[in-house]
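Entry type: protein chain
Record version: 2
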Amino acid sequence: MKKNLPSFSIIIPTRNRADNLEETLRRIESITYQGKWEVIIVNNNSADRTDQVVQRFLKRNRHFSLIKEEKEGISFVRNTGIKKSRYNHILFIDDDISVEREILIKFSSALINFPEATAIGGKIVGDFMENRLRYYKLFFKHLSWVFALTERKNDIEQLRYPDLIFSACICLRRNKLGKEMFNTMLGRRYGKFFLGAEDLEFCLRLLYRGHVFIYIGSIVVNHRINNIRFSILYLVKRFIQTGIENKLVEKILYQQNIPFSSWDWNKNNLKDALYCIFHFQDIPARLVQIFQILLFIVGYNLYEVFLKMKK
């Protein structure tokens, strides 16, 4: 074991996705790295066989440990993982992500090459079930965020406010975070209604405050995409929910004197979509993009209704 290599705490939040988690842990178990590392699975009140799955890995792998977070919500889980981690470099991996054996070697190299970075993120590509990849390319290639996929133009890129790296695969330096944590008003359930966007608010807040975020395209993980993400009902709910989430993110950031308008993103996307349609380019995907923007507007304006419901 080499002393000068960065040490990692891999945090895996999970809730009621035992089958997905098992596949993720199997991939992580194959990691080759000569530095120190640990894997912390944070179980958020799972009612399935999650504990049994994890116990099998605990018996055969000294790197693994299991903790529980009773407060329901991904933000609570992420924050608990940060607090319980032993090492300075915290790597979040979602429970439906497949990693390569060399992932810690690549993150280690990136951390050494960018000592000023608070966060380093990699490329998230889709692992689509059955023949869904062709549907994605035809209809959804301009909506990669719906599937939590990340691919930027450059192989190595420093993010600028208001850019975004998804927390499905992000490495944080705890000594640079200070007291910064995930905002628990997001990434949680309000009754039967779930709001995400905790990684959006986290990333925007830190970027605005001067933290350095680096994207490394050679660090690649696969996001296993469930077919339910292609259902009309899921997409309609997701598009409306995004409008509500972004409105709440705006309000949270505004309270911290951070200017942010999700309308800027949507205005630019709408202009691009209309231009392509008028020029008969990429029509199916652009029509879906316009449909998304319209439902985003609905959700954005339903925010006040949501406030009353969650009370």
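Comment: The CA atoms of residues 204 and 213 lie 10 Å apart.
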